[in-house]
Write a structure and sequence with these properties.
The complex is a heterodimer of chains A (about 400) and B (about 120).
Chain A: H1 35-75, H2 82-89, H3 93-118, H4 121-132, E1 138-139, H5 148-151, H6 172-185, H7 195-208, E2 216-220, H8 229-234, E3 239-244, H9 247-259, E4 265-269, E5 283-289, H10 300-310, E6 311-321, H11 331-337, H12 339-343, H13 349-352, H14 357-363, E7 371-377, E8 401-408
Parallel strand pairs in A: 1-4, 2-3, 2-5, 3-4, 5-6
Antiparallel strand pairs in A: 6-8, 7-8
Helix pairs in contact in A: 1-3, 1-6, 2-11, 3-6, 4-9, 6-9
Chain B: H1 7-11, H2 26-57, H3 64-69, H4 74-91, H5 93-104, H6 110-117
Helix pairs in contact in B: 2-4
Classes of the chains: A alpha/beta (about 400), B mainly alpha (about 120).
Protein backbone atom coordinates (compact mmCIF):
# COMPACT_ATOMS: atom_id res chain seq x y z
CA UNK A 1 0.00 0.00 0.00
CA UNK A 2 1.48 3.31 -1.02
CA UNK A 3 -0.65 5.40 1.27
CA UNK A 4 -0.08 3.94 4.72
CA UNK A 5 -0.77 7.20 6.54
CA UNK A 6 -4.41 7.35 5.58
CA UNK A 7 -7.02 5.72 7.80
CA UNK A 8 -8.80 3.44 5.35
CA UNK A 9 -12.04 3.43 7.33
CA UNK A 10 -14.69 5.78 5.97
CA UNK A 11 -16.32 8.20 8.39
CA UNK A 12 -19.28 6.57 10.08
CA UNK A 13 -22.61 7.64 8.58
CA UNK A 14 -24.24 10.17 10.85
CA UNK A 15 -27.83 9.36 11.66
CA UNK A 16 -30.13 12.16 10.55
CA UNK A 17 -33.53 10.47 10.63
CA UNK A 18 -36.53 10.96 12.88
CA UNK A 19 -35.98 10.67 16.65
CA UNK A 20 -37.49 7.80 18.64
CA UNK A 21 -41.19 8.37 19.31
CA UNK A 22 -40.53 8.31 23.07
CA UNK A 23 -39.28 11.92 22.90
CA UNK A 24 -42.84 13.21 22.36
CA UNK A 25 -44.22 15.40 25.13
CA UNK A 26 -46.87 13.65 27.19
CA UNK A 27 -49.41 16.08 28.55
CA UNK A 28 -52.18 15.04 30.90
CA UNK A 29 -54.60 13.69 28.29
CA UNK A 30 -52.07 12.09 25.95
CA UNK A 31 -52.99 8.52 25.02
CA UNK A 32 -50.92 5.77 26.60
CA UNK A 33 -48.77 3.83 24.18
CA UNK A 34 -47.21 0.42 24.69
CA UNK A 35 -43.94 -0.76 23.19
CA UNK A 36 -45.32 -2.09 19.92
CA UNK A 37 -47.61 0.87 19.33
CA UNK A 38 -44.57 3.14 19.66
CA UNK A 39 -42.63 0.89 17.30
CA UNK A 40 -45.42 1.29 14.72
CA UNK A 41 -45.15 5.09 14.89
CA UNK A 42 -41.36 4.77 14.62
CA UNK A 43 -41.72 2.69 11.47
CA UNK A 44 -44.25 5.12 9.96
CA UNK A 45 -42.08 8.18 10.67
CA UNK A 46 -39.16 6.42 8.97
CA UNK A 47 -41.37 5.26 6.10
CA UNK A 48 -42.52 8.83 5.46
CA UNK A 49 -38.91 9.99 5.58
CA UNK A 50 -37.93 7.26 3.10
CA UNK A 51 -40.80 8.25 0.81
CA UNK A 52 -39.82 11.91 0.77
CA UNK A 53 -36.04 11.52 0.54
CA UNK A 54 -35.49 8.27 -1.34
CA UNK A 55 -38.56 7.62 -3.50
CA UNK A 56 -40.12 10.98 -4.30
CA UNK A 57 -36.93 12.37 -5.95
CA UNK A 58 -37.44 9.56 -8.48
CA UNK A 59 -40.69 11.22 -9.58
CA UNK A 60 -38.76 14.35 -10.59
CA UNK A 61 -36.19 12.20 -12.38
CA UNK A 62 -38.92 10.30 -14.24
CA UNK A 63 -40.61 13.58 -15.12
CA UNK A 64 -37.42 15.00 -16.66
CA UNK A 65 -36.37 11.79 -18.38
CA UNK A 66 -39.65 10.54 -19.82
CA UNK A 67 -42.90 12.22 -18.75
CA UNK A 68 -42.15 15.67 -20.12
CA UNK A 69 -40.29 14.52 -23.28
CA UNK A 70 -43.12 12.08 -24.12
CA UNK A 71 -45.75 14.78 -23.65
CA UNK A 72 -43.85 17.29 -25.79
CA UNK A 73 -43.27 14.74 -28.54
CA UNK A 74 -46.92 13.79 -28.62
CA UNK A 75 -48.49 17.24 -28.26
CA UNK A 76 -45.75 19.32 -29.92
CA UNK A 77 -45.97 21.88 -27.09
CA UNK A 78 -45.14 22.48 -23.43
CA UNK A 79 -47.40 21.77 -20.51
CA UNK A 80 -49.95 24.52 -20.02
CA UNK A 81 -51.22 23.79 -16.51
CA UNK A 82 -50.33 21.91 -13.34
CA UNK A 83 -53.36 19.67 -13.93
CA UNK A 84 -51.94 18.62 -17.30
CA UNK A 85 -48.65 17.78 -15.57
CA UNK A 86 -50.42 15.76 -12.89
CA UNK A 87 -52.43 13.80 -15.42
CA UNK A 88 -49.28 12.98 -17.37
CA UNK A 89 -47.54 11.91 -14.14
CA UNK A 90 -50.42 9.55 -13.36
CA UNK A 91 -49.33 7.46 -16.36
CA UNK A 92 -45.78 7.02 -15.06
CA UNK A 93 -44.81 4.00 -12.89
CA UNK A 94 -42.51 6.01 -10.59
CA UNK A 95 -45.34 8.44 -9.75
CA UNK A 96 -47.81 5.55 -9.46
CA UNK A 97 -45.67 3.62 -6.97
CA UNK A 98 -44.69 6.66 -4.91
CA UNK A 99 -48.37 7.67 -4.76
CA UNK A 100 -49.63 4.17 -3.95
CA UNK A 101 -47.07 3.86 -1.15
CA UNK A 102 -47.72 7.37 0.17
CA UNK A 103 -51.47 6.80 0.29
CA UNK A 104 -50.96 3.39 1.93
CA UNK A 105 -48.63 4.94 4.52
CA UNK A 106 -51.21 7.64 5.33
CA UNK A 107 -53.91 5.01 5.83
CA UNK A 108 -51.59 2.83 7.92
CA UNK A 109 -50.73 5.82 10.10
CA UNK A 110 -54.45 6.49 10.69
CA UNK A 111 -55.01 2.86 11.62
CA UNK A 112 -52.05 2.88 14.03
CA UNK A 113 -53.26 6.05 15.78
CA UNK A 114 -56.89 5.01 15.83
CA UNK A 115 -56.03 1.67 17.40
CA UNK A 116 -54.06 3.40 20.18
CA UNK A 117 -56.84 5.85 21.02
CA UNK A 118 -59.91 3.66 20.42
CA UNK A 119 -58.68 0.87 22.69
CA UNK A 120 -58.56 3.37 25.58
CA UNK A 121 -61.51 5.51 24.44
CA UNK A 122 -63.45 5.14 27.68
CA UNK A 123 -60.55 6.30 29.89
CA UNK A 124 -59.53 9.14 27.56
CA UNK A 125 -63.09 10.40 27.15
CA UNK A 126 -63.63 10.29 30.92
CA UNK A 127 -60.38 12.12 31.65
CA UNK A 128 -61.20 14.91 29.18
CA UNK A 129 -64.78 15.04 30.47
CA UNK A 130 -63.57 15.58 34.03
CA UNK A 131 -61.19 18.35 32.99
CA UNK A 132 -63.74 20.26 30.91
CA UNK A 133 -67.06 19.66 32.66
CA UNK A 134 -68.57 22.98 33.75
CA UNK A 135 -65.57 24.96 32.55
CA UNK A 136 -66.67 28.24 30.99
CA UNK A 137 -63.71 28.17 28.65
CA UNK A 138 -65.43 25.48 26.58
CA UNK A 139 -68.34 26.86 24.55
CA UNK A 140 -70.01 24.19 22.43
CA UNK A 141 -73.15 24.56 20.35
CA UNK A 142 -75.19 21.34 20.42
CA UNK A 143 -77.27 22.63 17.49
CA UNK A 144 -74.22 23.41 15.37
CA UNK A 145 -74.55 22.02 11.85
CA UNK A 146 -71.26 21.06 10.21
CA UNK A 147 -70.76 23.09 7.04
CA UNK A 148 -70.71 21.00 3.85
CA UNK A 149 -67.02 21.98 3.44
CA UNK A 150 -66.02 19.98 6.52
CA UNK A 151 -68.66 17.29 6.24
CA UNK A 152 -68.40 16.21 2.57
CA UNK A 153 -65.13 14.32 2.90
CA UNK A 154 -62.84 13.20 5.73
CA UNK A 155 -59.98 15.68 5.57
CA UNK A 156 -56.46 14.30 5.03
CA UNK A 157 -57.87 10.77 5.14
CA UNK A 158 -58.52 11.02 8.88
CA UNK A 159 -61.61 8.85 9.35
CA UNK A 160 -64.29 10.93 11.06
CA UNK A 161 -62.41 14.14 10.21
CA UNK A 162 -62.45 16.89 12.84
CA UNK A 163 -66.03 16.57 13.98
CA UNK A 164 -67.18 12.96 14.40
CA UNK A 165 -68.06 11.63 17.85
CA UNK A 166 -68.36 7.85 18.03
CA UNK A 167 -70.04 8.13 21.43
CA UNK A 168 -71.21 11.26 23.24
CA UNK A 169 -68.19 13.22 24.49
CA UNK A 170 -65.81 11.27 22.26
CA UNK A 171 -62.33 12.81 21.78
CA UNK A 172 -60.54 9.87 20.18
CA UNK A 173 -60.36 11.77 16.86
CA UNK A 174 -58.22 14.63 18.15
CA UNK A 175 -56.24 12.27 20.40
CA UNK A 176 -55.39 10.26 17.28
CA UNK A 177 -54.40 13.44 15.43
CA UNK A 178 -52.23 14.54 18.34
CA UNK A 179 -50.51 11.19 18.91
CA UNK A 180 -49.87 10.37 15.25
CA UNK A 181 -48.76 13.61 13.65
CA UNK A 182 -45.22 12.70 14.75
CA UNK A 183 -45.32 9.86 12.24
CA UNK A 184 -46.63 12.04 9.40
CA UNK A 185 -44.01 14.75 9.90
CA UNK A 186 -41.10 12.61 11.10
CA UNK A 187 -40.98 14.62 14.32
CA UNK A 188 -40.60 17.94 12.48
CA UNK A 189 -43.16 19.73 14.67
CA UNK A 190 -41.36 19.11 17.94
CA UNK A 191 -42.25 17.75 21.34
CA UNK A 192 -45.83 19.06 21.57
CA UNK A 193 -46.47 19.41 17.81
CA UNK A 194 -46.15 23.11 18.50
CA UNK A 195 -43.06 24.05 16.46
CA UNK A 196 -45.27 26.08 14.09
CA UNK A 197 -46.89 28.09 16.87
CA UNK A 198 -43.57 28.68 18.63
CA UNK A 199 -42.17 29.98 15.33
CA UNK A 200 -45.13 32.34 14.83
CA UNK A 201 -44.89 33.71 18.38
CA UNK A 202 -41.15 34.33 17.97
CA UNK A 203 -41.66 35.89 14.52
CA UNK A 204 -44.33 38.26 15.83
CA UNK A 205 -42.16 39.36 18.76
CA UNK A 206 -39.22 39.96 16.42
CA UNK A 207 -41.26 41.71 13.72
CA UNK A 208 -43.51 43.91 15.84
CA UNK A 209 -41.25 44.41 18.86
CA UNK A 210 -42.09 44.96 22.50
CA UNK A 211 -44.67 47.62 21.68
CA UNK A 212 -47.04 44.97 20.39
CA UNK A 213 -48.94 43.88 23.48
CA UNK A 214 -52.11 42.14 22.29
CA UNK A 215 -54.89 42.04 24.88
CA UNK A 216 -57.19 39.82 22.85
CA UNK A 217 -56.09 37.18 20.31
CA UNK A 218 -58.36 35.12 18.04
CA UNK A 219 -57.18 31.86 16.49
CA UNK A 220 -59.45 30.65 13.69
CA UNK A 221 -59.62 27.01 12.63
CA UNK A 222 -57.73 26.17 15.80
CA UNK A 223 -58.26 22.40 15.72
CA UNK A 224 -57.00 20.95 18.99
CA UNK A 225 -55.10 24.17 19.72
CA UNK A 226 -51.55 22.88 19.26
CA UNK A 227 -50.64 25.93 17.14
CA UNK A 228 -52.19 28.53 19.43
CA UNK A 229 -50.91 27.28 22.80
CA UNK A 230 -47.36 28.62 22.22
CA UNK A 231 -48.91 32.00 21.33
CA UNK A 232 -50.99 31.94 24.52
CA UNK A 233 -47.87 31.01 26.48
CA UNK A 234 -45.82 33.78 24.85
CA UNK A 235 -48.52 36.38 25.67
CA UNK A 236 -49.75 35.16 29.06
CA UNK A 237 -51.62 38.38 29.80
CA UNK A 238 -53.71 38.11 26.64
CA UNK A 239 -57.17 36.60 26.45
CA UNK A 240 -56.96 34.00 23.69
CA UNK A 241 -60.00 32.64 21.86
CA UNK A 242 -59.70 29.54 19.69
CA UNK A 243 -62.56 28.87 17.27
CA UNK A 244 -63.20 25.66 15.35
CA UNK A 245 -66.15 23.77 13.88
CA UNK A 246 -65.25 20.45 15.51
CA UNK A 247 -66.55 19.92 19.06
CA UNK A 248 -64.22 16.98 19.88
CA UNK A 249 -61.18 19.09 18.92
CA UNK A 250 -62.26 21.91 21.23
CA UNK A 251 -63.08 19.63 24.14
CA UNK A 252 -59.74 17.84 23.84
CA UNK A 253 -58.03 21.19 23.21
CA UNK A 254 -59.16 22.71 26.50
CA UNK A 255 -58.27 19.60 28.52
CA UNK A 256 -54.87 19.45 26.81
CA UNK A 257 -54.17 23.16 27.41
CA UNK A 258 -55.14 22.90 31.09
CA UNK A 259 -53.01 19.84 31.64
CA UNK A 260 -50.08 21.79 30.15
CA UNK A 261 -50.70 24.70 32.53
CA UNK A 262 -51.95 27.09 29.86
CA UNK A 263 -55.05 28.74 31.28
CA UNK A 264 -55.71 31.78 29.05
CA UNK A 265 -57.43 30.07 26.11
CA UNK A 266 -61.19 29.76 25.58
CA UNK A 267 -62.36 27.20 23.00
CA UNK A 268 -65.50 28.12 21.06
CA UNK A 269 -67.43 26.09 18.47
CA UNK A 270 -68.47 28.21 15.50
CA UNK A 271 -68.25 28.63 11.76
CA UNK A 272 -65.34 30.98 11.07
CA UNK A 273 -67.01 32.48 8.01
CA UNK A 274 -69.58 34.10 10.30
CA UNK A 275 -68.17 35.27 13.61
CA UNK A 276 -71.01 37.68 14.35
CA UNK A 277 -70.92 36.53 17.98
CA UNK A 278 -67.87 38.85 18.35
CA UNK A 279 -68.13 42.64 18.24
CA UNK A 280 -66.47 44.83 15.61
CA UNK A 281 -62.91 45.84 16.40
CA UNK A 282 -62.59 43.54 19.40
CA UNK A 283 -59.28 41.75 18.68
CA UNK A 284 -55.67 42.91 18.50
CA UNK A 285 -54.50 39.84 16.58
CA UNK A 286 -56.29 37.30 14.42
CA UNK A 287 -54.26 34.21 13.56
CA UNK A 288 -54.72 31.14 11.37
CA UNK A 289 -52.08 28.42 11.09
CA UNK A 290 -52.27 25.84 8.30
CA UNK A 291 -55.99 26.45 8.20
CA UNK A 292 -56.80 28.29 4.97
CA UNK A 293 -56.37 25.09 2.94
CA UNK A 294 -59.02 23.42 5.08
CA UNK A 295 -61.54 26.07 4.16
CA UNK A 296 -63.20 26.54 0.80
CA UNK A 297 -62.64 29.02 -2.01
CA UNK A 298 -66.19 30.22 -1.42
CA UNK A 299 -65.78 30.94 2.28
CA UNK A 300 -62.28 32.45 2.17
CA UNK A 301 -63.43 35.97 1.17
CA UNK A 302 -65.98 35.85 4.02
CA UNK A 303 -63.22 34.86 6.44
CA UNK A 304 -60.98 37.69 5.24
CA UNK A 305 -63.84 40.18 5.58
CA UNK A 306 -64.60 38.92 9.10
CA UNK A 307 -60.97 39.31 10.17
CA UNK A 308 -61.02 42.90 8.87
CA UNK A 309 -64.19 43.65 10.81
CA UNK A 310 -62.93 42.03 14.02
CA UNK A 311 -59.55 43.75 14.18
CA UNK A 312 -59.04 46.83 16.29
CA UNK A 313 -57.32 49.68 14.45
CA UNK A 314 -53.60 48.88 14.56
CA UNK A 315 -54.34 45.17 14.98
CA UNK A 316 -52.81 42.43 12.82
CA UNK A 317 -54.08 39.38 10.98
CA UNK A 318 -51.66 36.60 10.03
CA UNK A 319 -52.25 33.47 7.96
CA UNK A 320 -49.55 30.80 8.00
CA UNK A 321 -49.67 28.50 4.97
CA UNK A 322 -47.65 26.55 2.46
CA UNK A 323 -46.50 28.79 -0.43
CA UNK A 324 -48.93 29.92 -3.11
CA UNK A 325 -48.67 28.69 -6.69
CA UNK A 326 -47.11 31.83 -8.12
CA UNK A 327 -46.28 32.00 -11.85
CA UNK A 328 -42.64 31.64 -10.86
CA UNK A 329 -43.26 28.19 -9.35
CA UNK A 330 -42.58 25.44 -11.93
CA UNK A 331 -45.69 23.52 -13.03
CA UNK A 332 -44.06 20.26 -11.90
CA UNK A 333 -43.73 21.61 -8.35
CA UNK A 334 -47.32 22.86 -8.42
CA UNK A 335 -48.53 19.44 -9.56
CA UNK A 336 -46.57 17.71 -6.79
CA UNK A 337 -47.92 20.13 -4.21
CA UNK A 338 -51.41 19.33 -5.47
CA UNK A 339 -50.99 15.67 -4.50
CA UNK A 340 -52.66 16.19 -1.12
CA UNK A 341 -55.58 17.97 -2.78
CA UNK A 342 -56.47 15.10 -5.05
CA UNK A 343 -55.11 12.03 -3.29
CA UNK A 344 -55.16 12.87 0.42
CA UNK A 345 -58.63 14.38 0.80
CA UNK A 346 -57.58 18.02 0.95
CA UNK A 347 -60.12 19.22 -1.64
CA UNK A 348 -59.61 22.95 -1.07
CA UNK A 349 -55.83 22.82 -1.19
CA UNK A 350 -55.50 23.25 -4.97
CA UNK A 351 -57.84 26.21 -5.55
CA UNK A 352 -56.76 27.92 -2.34
CA UNK A 353 -53.12 27.89 -3.43
CA UNK A 354 -53.79 29.62 -6.74
CA UNK A 355 -55.49 32.62 -5.15
CA UNK A 356 -53.68 35.95 -5.25
CA UNK A 357 -53.90 36.39 -1.49
CA UNK A 358 -52.68 39.99 -1.62
CA UNK A 359 -55.58 40.90 -3.91
CA UNK A 360 -58.08 39.09 -1.71
CA UNK A 361 -56.77 40.81 1.40
CA UNK A 362 -57.13 44.17 -0.35
CA UNK A 363 -60.66 43.32 -1.44
CA UNK A 364 -61.46 42.58 2.23
CA UNK A 365 -60.50 46.17 3.01
CA UNK A 366 -56.84 45.95 4.02
CA UNK A 367 -54.66 48.71 2.62
CA UNK A 368 -52.10 47.98 -0.07
CA UNK A 369 -49.29 49.43 2.04
CA UNK A 370 -50.27 47.48 5.10
CA UNK A 371 -49.91 43.92 3.85
CA UNK A 372 -47.47 41.69 5.73
CA UNK A 373 -45.28 38.97 4.19
CA UNK A 374 -42.83 36.66 5.89
CA UNK A 375 -41.64 33.12 6.39
CA UNK A 376 -41.36 30.80 9.39
CA UNK A 377 -39.95 27.32 9.99
CA UNK A 378 -40.91 25.09 12.91
CA UNK A 379 -38.91 25.89 16.03
CA UNK A 380 -38.04 22.71 17.90
CA UNK A 381 -35.55 21.42 20.46
CA UNK A 382 -32.74 20.83 17.97
CA UNK A 383 -30.88 18.42 20.25
CA UNK A 384 -33.72 15.96 19.84
CA UNK A 385 -35.85 16.89 16.83
CA UNK A 386 -35.01 17.45 13.17
CA UNK A 387 -34.72 21.13 12.26
CA UNK A 388 -36.91 22.14 9.30
CA UNK A 389 -34.87 25.30 8.68
CA UNK A 390 -31.67 23.28 8.13
CA UNK A 391 -33.37 20.49 6.19
CA UNK A 392 -32.80 20.75 2.45
CA UNK A 393 -35.15 17.89 1.54
CA UNK A 394 -38.47 18.84 -0.02
CA UNK A 395 -41.72 17.10 0.78
CA UNK A 396 -43.97 19.25 -1.41
CA UNK A 397 -46.66 20.60 0.87
CA UNK A 398 -45.59 18.67 3.97
CA UNK A 399 -42.45 20.51 5.02
CA UNK A 400 -42.56 22.26 8.41
CA UNK A 401 -41.71 25.64 6.86
CA UNK A 402 -44.41 28.09 5.83
CA UNK A 403 -45.20 31.47 4.36
CA UNK A 404 -46.85 34.21 6.37
CA UNK A 405 -49.39 36.47 4.66
CA UNK A 406 -51.17 39.08 6.67
CA UNK A 407 -52.09 42.69 7.12
CA UNK A 408 -52.22 45.46 9.66
CA UNK A 409 -55.46 47.34 10.04
CA UNK A 410 -54.86 51.05 9.66
CA UNK A 411 -55.09 52.90 12.94
CA UNK B 1 -77.43 1.50 27.49
CA UNK B 2 -73.98 2.95 27.03
CA UNK B 3 -72.57 2.87 23.55
CA UNK B 4 -69.36 0.93 23.12
CA UNK B 5 -66.48 1.27 20.71
CA UNK B 6 -64.99 -1.79 19.01
CA UNK B 7 -61.35 -0.75 18.50
CA UNK B 8 -60.42 -3.65 16.22
CA UNK B 9 -63.26 -2.96 13.82
CA UNK B 10 -62.96 0.81 13.88
CA UNK B 11 -59.16 1.24 13.81
CA UNK B 12 -59.09 0.39 10.14
CA UNK B 13 -62.13 2.45 9.11
CA UNK B 14 -62.14 3.98 5.66
CA UNK B 15 -62.00 7.76 5.40
CA UNK B 16 -65.08 9.30 3.79
CA UNK B 17 -64.39 10.14 0.14
CA UNK B 18 -63.72 8.00 -2.94
CA UNK B 19 -60.32 6.31 -2.72
CA UNK B 20 -57.86 6.93 -5.55
CA UNK B 21 -55.99 3.90 -6.96
CA UNK B 22 -52.65 4.43 -8.63
CA UNK B 23 -51.31 1.15 -9.97
CA UNK B 24 -52.66 -0.12 -13.27
CA UNK B 25 -54.05 -3.21 -11.57
CA UNK B 26 -55.87 -2.38 -8.30
CA UNK B 27 -55.32 -5.95 -7.11
CA UNK B 28 -51.56 -5.35 -7.16
CA UNK B 29 -52.15 -2.22 -5.08
CA UNK B 30 -54.23 -4.24 -2.63
CA UNK B 31 -51.39 -6.75 -2.26
CA UNK B 32 -48.94 -3.85 -1.85
CA UNK B 33 -51.11 -2.48 1.00
CA UNK B 34 -51.17 -5.87 2.71
CA UNK B 35 -47.39 -6.07 2.26
CA UNK B 36 -46.87 -2.66 3.79
CA UNK B 37 -48.80 -3.72 6.87
CA UNK B 38 -46.57 -6.81 7.15
CA UNK B 39 -43.41 -4.76 6.59
CA UNK B 40 -44.56 -2.58 9.49
CA UNK B 41 -45.18 -5.56 11.75
CA UNK B 42 -41.73 -7.04 11.02
CA UNK B 43 -40.23 -3.68 12.01
CA UNK B 44 -42.27 -3.80 15.22
CA UNK B 45 -41.06 -7.33 16.04
CA UNK B 46 -37.47 -6.33 15.35
CA UNK B 47 -37.76 -3.31 17.63
CA UNK B 48 -39.15 -5.56 20.37
CA UNK B 49 -36.26 -8.02 19.98
CA UNK B 50 -33.81 -5.13 20.07
CA UNK B 51 -35.43 -3.81 23.25
CA UNK B 52 -35.17 -7.22 24.90
CA UNK B 53 -31.48 -7.50 23.95
CA UNK B 54 -30.75 -4.06 25.34
CA UNK B 55 -32.62 -4.77 28.58
CA UNK B 56 -30.56 -7.94 29.02
CA UNK B 57 -27.35 -6.05 28.29
CA UNK B 58 -28.28 -3.53 30.99
CA UNK B 59 -28.83 -6.42 33.38
CA UNK B 60 -32.52 -5.57 33.70
CA UNK B 61 -35.26 -8.14 33.98
CA UNK B 62 -37.30 -8.80 30.88
CA UNK B 63 -41.01 -8.47 31.46
CA UNK B 64 -43.93 -6.92 29.65
CA UNK B 65 -43.65 -3.92 31.97
CA UNK B 66 -39.91 -3.45 31.44
CA UNK B 67 -40.34 -3.73 27.65
CA UNK B 68 -43.15 -1.15 27.65
CA UNK B 69 -41.14 1.08 29.99
CA UNK B 70 -37.89 0.93 28.04
CA UNK B 71 -36.50 4.26 26.81
CA UNK B 72 -33.46 4.22 24.54
CA UNK B 73 -30.57 6.62 25.10
CA UNK B 74 -29.93 9.03 22.21
CA UNK B 75 -27.15 6.76 21.00
CA UNK B 76 -29.34 3.66 21.18
CA UNK B 77 -32.20 5.48 19.45
CA UNK B 78 -29.87 6.54 16.64
CA UNK B 79 -28.66 2.95 16.23
CA UNK B 80 -32.24 1.72 16.06
CA UNK B 81 -33.17 4.50 13.63
CA UNK B 82 -30.21 3.59 11.45
CA UNK B 83 -31.32 -0.05 11.43
CA UNK B 84 -34.79 1.03 10.35
CA UNK B 85 -33.41 3.14 7.50
CA UNK B 86 -31.32 0.23 6.29
CA UNK B 87 -34.29 -2.14 6.64
CA UNK B 88 -36.63 0.10 4.65
CA UNK B 89 -33.98 0.66 1.98
CA UNK B 90 -33.59 -3.12 1.70
CA UNK B 91 -37.32 -3.61 1.27
CA UNK B 92 -37.65 -0.96 -1.44
CA UNK B 93 -34.48 -1.93 -3.33
CA UNK B 94 -36.42 -2.35 -6.56
CA UNK B 95 -37.52 1.28 -6.53
CA UNK B 96 -33.97 2.43 -5.87
CA UNK B 97 -32.94 0.40 -8.91
CA UNK B 98 -35.75 1.88 -11.01
CA UNK B 99 -34.32 5.31 -10.18
CA UNK B 100 -30.81 4.20 -11.13
CA UNK B 101 -32.18 2.87 -14.43
CA UNK B 102 -33.67 6.28 -15.20
CA UNK B 103 -30.33 7.93 -14.46
CA UNK B 104 -28.46 5.55 -16.76
CA UNK B 105 -30.83 6.03 -19.67
CA UNK B 106 -30.77 3.40 -22.40
CA UNK B 107 -28.85 0.33 -21.24
CA UNK B 108 -27.76 -2.74 -23.16
CA UNK B 109 -29.29 -6.02 -22.13
CA UNK B 110 -27.12 -9.04 -21.54
CA UNK B 111 -28.64 -10.50 -24.70
CA UNK B 112 -27.57 -7.41 -26.68
CA UNK B 113 -24.00 -7.83 -25.45
CA UNK B 114 -24.03 -11.59 -26.09
CA UNK B 115 -25.14 -10.98 -29.67
CA UNK B 116 -22.53 -8.29 -30.13
CA UNK B 117 -19.69 -10.59 -29.15
CA UNK B 118 -21.07 -13.64 -30.89
CA UNK B 119 -19.99 -12.24 -34.24
CA UNK B 120 -16.55 -12.86 -35.62
Amino acid sequence: MADTERDPRPDPIEYDGPPDYRVVGRHGVYPETNHDEIARFNFLAQMNRHLSTKIMPGVGEAFDARVEPTFKKKKKRDFESRHEVRKALLEDPMFQWWSALRRATMETRQQAGRWVTLRQAEELNAKVGELTEGDERLVLDPKFKQPRSTEAIDHHCMPGSYHTELVPGDITGPANYDAGIFATTGGMLGRYNDGGGVAVAEWVKKTFGDDFKPKRILDIGAGLGHNVLPIAAAFPDAEVIAVDAGAPMLRYGLARAKSMGIENVTFIQDDVSDLSRFEDESFDWVQSTMFLHETSYKTMPMIFAETQRLLKPGGIVLHVEQPQYADTMPLFEQAMRDWDAFYNNEPFWTKMHEVDLDEWMKKAGFGDNHLIHGGVAAVVDKDVFPDAADDDSEDFGRKAAWHVIGAKKVA
Amino acid sequence: MTQTIDPIALAGSKAKGKRPWFLENPDIERVMNINLALIQEVAVMHERMDTIERLLERGDTVSKASIDGYTPTKEEADERGMWMQEYIARIFRIIQQDREAIARGKEDSSEDVAEEFAKT
